[in-house]
Amino acid sequence: MRTAEELKNIVKEKYGDIAERSAGSEGCCGENQEKENSVKTSSCCEDTEEKEGSASGTSCCGGNKEKDYSVLAEDYANLKGYNPDADLQLGCGIPTHYAQIHEGDTVVDLGSGAGNDCFVARALTGENGRVIGLDFTDAMVAKARANVQKLGYENVEFVLGEIENIPLPDNTADVVVSNCVMNLVPDKDKAFRETYRILKEGGHFSISDIVLQGEIPEGLRNDAAMYAGCVSGALQKKEYLDIVRRAGFKNLVIQIQKKMELDDAIYLKYFTQEEVENFKKSFKGIFSITLNAEK
């Protein structure tokens, strides 16, 4: 069992590497390919949508050529405010789409990466609003700050810090968003308490994340690559929702849920082919959810 500090270092190293290698690259993983092709040809997982009309697309790239970085990246290309330099294909949903962001709101993005969701949020909150991105990886914050400088936005800022100790005052945000990041935080109870603290009374969050229904193999859970790729750090769905409630949130609504299928090659690192088939019969699955809850 890895310590919290070891897990943080895994994430910081892997995502720092992604940020640095993405600088100056074209397309997913620095490969010069169109998004449609990267979704289909470089994918190691498939997703099944449970609601119609939502954005689709799967990328197991996660800014890295290793198949173990398995995430459900959505297609942001047609969204107002989208900036391709900020899209490292690391998310598992589009939380800003469901976040009910209004003109003039203050929005905080937890685990903001290169700024993708922040720039989409800024298009919704307008010039009179404020958007703050938080990330604990130096290289990601540097990349996000470079992106915002190029765009010339004066109401978008990026700060370095941990979600378990958010360096922002109480009652800062009208809306908090986060995209496939909470599952990477070792102390999720504290992370959601901090989220509650920085929200204004009556504020809410929209968070996309990975949850489980059924147990995954211990070897897979302890795999460093799979941890950085969002799966190994995921909780059981019920446990995840219980943590949110314990933090004080109410009116929890799962806005969208999609099933994620890992490539058999990943399971075969830990199982025989026969064991893989038996496991898949009993395992309900890995899911990407987008959750809304109110303070």
Characteristics of this structure?
single chain; 33% helix; alpha/beta; 295 residues; nine-stranded mixed β-sheet; Rossmann fold
Can you put this structure into words, describing what you see?
The chain is an alpha/beta fold and 295 residues long. It has one domain (4-294): Rossmann fold (3-Layer(aba) Sandwich). The protein has eleven helices and nine strands. It has helices at residues 4-22, 35-41, 95-98, 116-125, 138-151, 188-198, 218-221, 224-228, 237-246, 264-267, 273-282, and strands at residues 45-49, 106-110, 130-135, 156-160, 173-179, 199-213, 235-236, 250-262, 285-294. α1 (4-22) runs parallel beside α5 and α6 crosses α9 (237-246). The protein is globular and about 60 Å long. The protein starts with a helix and ends with a strand.
The CATH superfamily name is Vaccinia Virus protein VP39
Task: Please work out how many helical segments DSSP would assign.
Answer: 11
Basic shape: globular
Q: Residue-averaged pLDDT, rounded?
A: 78
Question: How many angstroms separate the termini?
Answer: 34 Å
Specify Rg, calculated over alpha carbons: 18 Å
Structural class: alpha/beta
Topology as H/E string?
A: HHEHEHEHEEHEHHEHEHHE
Number of domains: 1
Compute the number of strand runs.
9
**CATH class category name:** Alpha Beta
Corresponding CATH architecture: 3-Layer(aba) Sandwich
Helix fraction by DSSP (H/I, runs of at least 4)? 25-40%
The major beta sheet can be summarized as: 9 strands, mixed
- Spans of at least 5 consecutive residues with low confidence: 24-71
> According to CATH, what is the topology?
Rossmann fold
How much of the polypeptide forms β-strand, as a percent range? 15-25%
